[in-house]
Amino acid sequence: MVPILLVLLLALLLFGLGFAVKMLWWIAIIVLVVWLLGFLVRSTTASGRSRWYRW
């Protein structure tokens, strides 16, 4: 009974980890798109050294 529970627990853990990693990939893609849009908006303005972020 214990090995079956351990395998079930391992499967649930790996499923949860896979879901979290997939969500992190989606968040990274969204951040990349926002950064690219900000870069394009900044490059089309004619005000010289204006930046859309504060780093």
From TrEMBL:
Q: Which domain of life is it from?
A: Bacteria
Q: Does the keyword Transmembrane apply?
A: yes
**Which keywords, in A-to-Z order, does the entry hold?**
Membrane, Transmembrane, Transmembrane helix
Ranges that cross the membrane = 30-48
The record's InterPro entries line, in alphabetical order, gives: Lmo0937-like
Please provide an example of a Pfam family that matches this protein in its UniProt record.
DUF5670
Is Membrane given among the entry's keywords? yes
What name goes with this protein? Answer: Hydrophobic protein
